[in-house]
Every structure is written in structure tokens, then in C-alpha cells.
Amino acid sequence: MPENRQVVIASLPTGALAESDFELQTVGVPEPGPGQVLCRTLAVSVSAGSRAGLQGSASYAGAPKTGIVMSSLAVARVERSNDPALSPGDVVTCGAGWQDWSVHPAQQCFRVEGSADPARYLGVLGTNGLTAYFGLLEVGEPKPGDTVVVSAAAGSVGHLVGQIARIQGCRVVGVAGSDEKCQRLVAELGFDAAVSHRSPDFRQEFKAACGDGIDVYFDNTGGDVLGAALFRMRNGGRIACCGVVSQYDTSKPAPGPRGVPGLLVNKRLRMQGFLVFDWAQRYGEARAQLESWLDSGELVAWQDEFEGLESAPRALVDLLAGGNVGTRIVRVSPG
Amino acid sequence: MPENRQVVIASLPTGALAESDFELQTVGVPEPGPGQVLCRTLAVSVSAGSRAGLQGSASYAGAPKTGIVMSSLAVARVERSNDPALSPGDVVTCGAGWQDWSVHPAQQCFRVEGSADPARYLGVLGTNGLTAYFGLLEVGEPKPGDTVVVSAAAGSVGHLVGQIARIQGCRVVGVAGSDEKCQRLVAELGFDAAVSHRSPDFRQEFKAACGDGIDVYFDNTGGDVLGAALFRMRNGGRIACCGVVSQYDTSKPAPGPRGVPGLLVNKRLRMQGFLVFDWAQRYGEARAQLESWLDSGELVAWQDEFEGLESAPRALVDLLAGGNVGTRIVRVSPG
User: Fold this and answer.
1) ipTM of the complex as predicted
2) What pairs with residue B181 in β-bridges?
3) Testing the interface with B: which of A265, A267, A269, A274 to mutate, by most B Cβ within 10 A?
4) Where in chain B are the domains?
5) What is the pLDDT of residues A267-291, one digit of tens each?
6) Which residues from chain B sit within 8 angstroms of residue A232, using beta carbons?
7) Which end of chain A, N or C, is more open, meaning fewer C-beta atoms within 10 Å of its C-beta?
8) Which of residues 261-300 of A touch B (CB under 8 A)?
9) Per CATH, the architecture of A3-122+302-331 is what?
10) d(CA B85, CA B82)
11) Smallest Cβ distance to A268: which of B57, B219, B274?
12) Looking at the domain covering A127-277, what would its CATH class be?
């Protein structure tokens, strides 16, 4: 019987996350019980949201603990099944976490169908893509001609948001963390403009890029970029609050932006948080649309990859420092 | 010919507003031009929003200046008319400001009909009542059984919001600035609970009053009360941002509340600013409903009054210190 390598949380970070907050351990492969399946992990996702899950404060994922396997979504292959709904060889998405083997109730595994690379279900066809789709269209409600701004624009959700907005006929401005990312957003993904929040002249450059103001701001970061965007919103604008990556890698989140709630009143702004799970009944419709855009070439999905389970902590620490472009995954097994 | 007394802005306040920031001057009575009417002020409104208009920062009312008449809504009687739409003796609402006489284009005066006391058009049948009505029902979207919280609950808008929520079948919690106000909200207006934000145990008392959490928070204050409410919101809750009275009487507004935008995401909250003018087409419908509730006794309108134009600065300074209960007006002329 093979062994099961696991990346576990060794210590809860109080400041910036470090690779040393994790450790690799090896245990036996678990046995599936009645109605359960045994899964072999093919790839796991690495996302800023995982860091939020390590904060002691309220998160929709619950309170973090040491000594447990780092949680994450994964694509996996069913190796043994005690449920007629799934068969060995089926490829599924499941909450495997950062480990080689895991058992799950069969109904918590979702069969992946028809994609050349199942890892796409960790990116454009998974939570990231669905978040971009529903968050922009249902919460942001962009109209053709609107100016749409997205922060963490080169990130897993952001790069898709900008493109979906462009497909809707909007003018799209991205905010990202380096000049190189900004250049790629414009050259490769058709953003109308992109601004680095690390530029010493960020506020001025941002103002210039936003022209007459922002109709829809898709906020992945909170913090200073949210603060800047609030001052550039047009009357009646919508802010879709998706994530707060600027405040994840710390145990001391900053105060909220000035202008809340004053600017919300004066400009009649709507600021709305959302979680993609609320649209679970409509995932099929969204995936069909996303695949159609991918097939036509209108939508490009960026994916960046690490090899080997042991690289997952490094992949996350680097992502929090802004190292990723698009969806970051770790390939665990060749499948 | 009579004289025209005016309260003008002598200096723009940098800290808390003082009576000395105003001065009384006497000028001639203006002449109405073509299409204009000359109005004799009967009563003017005194509201926290007037203080916001004296801040240099962006307000929907535009930038403030010294040497001009303090702006405010008023009820007034038409004395001379150069427009067939209005006749001498008509009682109207208009933006007279704090002065005895003013001229206006006739189409900027709105005839007041059928109310025993026209000053009600500065309160429950005016901007305050309409703000409570549309802000609560259209932005807050309360459902029967919801817990609705309103801040500045004894204020001109707040005391109406709480009662309209009660009429909708909601459980209503008010936050006000004194124990006496809280007692009156419960005893006289049927609030289920009320908490003083000046209590040293405010956070605990507020938590207890909110029970299982808040579905709708109608925010008149921003600041600490908004901060406390954010942490007590239920998933999917709505925050109607109406005003920021905690930040008006200063030139150094505090940062926004912690938890923006993090809590908005985790709890899927919607936070939406509004200005009542956006529902101008529906004022008639709202006034008819408000009058019906007043007639049946379900809705009680609190009004507090000062006498004489010269008392207006004192009335505003006192209101900003929390001295008012309900709508504050200054009677200028017996009519």
C-alpha cells in the first residue's frame, strides 16, 4: 500500500505567512467507509482565500486549527468506491486538501466531464471562474459602455473578470502589482488600461485610467485600492466585494476605507459582498458560457503551475507576495 | 416695506459648529422677476445634513461659502407672484434658507395641500418622512419578522424608520443618544428595544438587543454604531446608508469601520447609499401612505420647535449635540 503525504498546519501565522508554518508528514492511506470513495489527488489549488482561512477571525470557512491538513480544492481520481454514483477512474473535484489520498462521501465529489485538462476545474471552470462570472454579472451588473475596474487583475479571478467585462462591451481597467502584469493584461487579454498599485504615482495614474469615473468596481483586495476606487466611483456605481487579499496576510487588518459610508450616500453607491456558492444552482449555465468563450478564443485562462505536493507551501507564500499570474495550482500526481 | 432678516454663514467651522459661525444681517426684501414668486418664510427646517453642507469635502449639495444665507428647506406663503401657477396666499415648500423673504422660480416651489400644519412638510410629509419611507422599504427591503436596527433612532428620519419597520411586522431596535430617548422610543413609538450609544456597555447591550442578529440596518450615523452593527449583521443582511451624522460636526472624519469590506464578503452583505430625490416620481404615493398611517394612529410624528429666525443657529448647534427629538423646525412667522 502506498503512503499518504500530507501538508499540515504547524503554526497559525501571526504576521506574514511563512513556509515554516507548514510541515510535511506521512501517514497511512485512509479506508473509505460505506457511501464513501477513496481519491488520489491529481492537483490542488493555491489561492489567497486559503490564507484568510488561517486567520483567527470570522471566516465563512470556520476557525483554523494546527495539526490538520491544509484545506483546498483539488481534482482527484476515484481509486475505490463504496457508492454506486462513482466508479474507479472517475475524475472529480473535491475538498481533498494538500495530501495524496483522501476519503469523501460520494455526494461531496463532483464528476468532471469533457475537459482536456481537469485542472481547469480549479480555475476558469471552477470556483474562480464562477466567482468572476456571477460576481461581475449578478452583483456588478455592468452595462455596455460602462467603465469596469478590477483589482488583483492578474489574479485567478481578476483576469477573468476583466475579460468578461470586455466581452460585455465595457471599458476595462485593471489594477495589478507590477508593470509586467499590467503590460500583459493590456497586450494579451485586451484590457483598455492597467495600473500598478505599487507605482509611486498610483493615485494619479489610476485617476487618469478611470477617465470619467467607475461604474463597476470588482474588489478583490480591499485596502488602499478600494479607498482609491471609492473616490472615483460615478453616481449610482456598484462595488462587488469579492475578497480582501490586501488584509489576508496579517493578523492586524487595517481600518476600513475613508468615505464609508459618506461617499456611499453622496454617490448612491451599492457595495455588496458575495460568495459564489449562492449561485450553485446555476453553475451549469455559467460553465457552458465560459467554455463557449474559451472555445471562441474570446476568453483566455491563465494558469500557473508548481510541481509536487511539497511545493505547495512555497506556492502559497509566493502567491501572497504577488508571484502568481492567473490561477495557481500544484500538480500532485500525473494522474 | 418690511425688512429681510437673514442668517448668513460668517465662517466655515473647522471643528464643532458654533453659534458664532453665523451672523444675522438685515437687507431689503427682494423683487420677484418674471416667472418668479416672492415668499414669506413660515418655518425652516434644522437638520444634521445642514452641517454636512458646511464641510469642504464633496457633498451632493456642492461646496460651501461664507457670506451666503444658510440654506435650508422651508414652508412659506406666496406674497407676490409673477407666474400663473401660484397665487398670493398659496403655501409652498421651497429652498428659502434661513431668512424672512426669498424669491424663487415658481416651478421650484411646491404647493402644500390639505395639512393642518404645513410644517409637517418639513418633517413626516417632507424629505425626512420620504427618506425614511423609501430608504427603508426600497433599500433596506425588510420582510415581516426581520430584525431592523436604526441609528439616530429618535431623530427626524430615525423615529419614522422604526415605526414603518414595526408596521411591516419587523422587530425594531433603535440606537439613540440618551436613556430618555430610548425609553420614549419603546414607550411611545412601540420600538421593541432601544440602546444608548453613550452607555459604557453599549456593545454588550447592543448585542443583547439584536438577538439572533440584524437583517436590516438603517444607518444615519456611520462611525462606531455602524462598526458595531456590521459585526451583528446576519448573512444576506442589508445596510441602508442614509447619513453620517457622527462625522458631520468635524473637519476630520474618522476612517471607515473595520470589517469593510471583509465582513461584507463573509456575510454577503449589501451596503447601499441613497438620496431620496431619486424617488421624486413616487412622492405622492409615499405621502398618501404616510398620511394614512398618521390618520390611523399607527405612525406618530415627533416635531420639536424653536421660535424666531434668530434662534436657528442655536437650534442647529444643539441638534448636533443630540438635543432634538424628532424633526426640528424653527417657526419664523406665524403665517
Assistant:
1) 0.88
2) none
3) A265
4) 3-122+302-331, 127-277
5) 999 999 999 999 999 999 999 999 9
6) none
7) N
8) 261-275, 278
9) Alpha-Beta Complex (3.90)
10) 9
11) B274
12) alpha beta
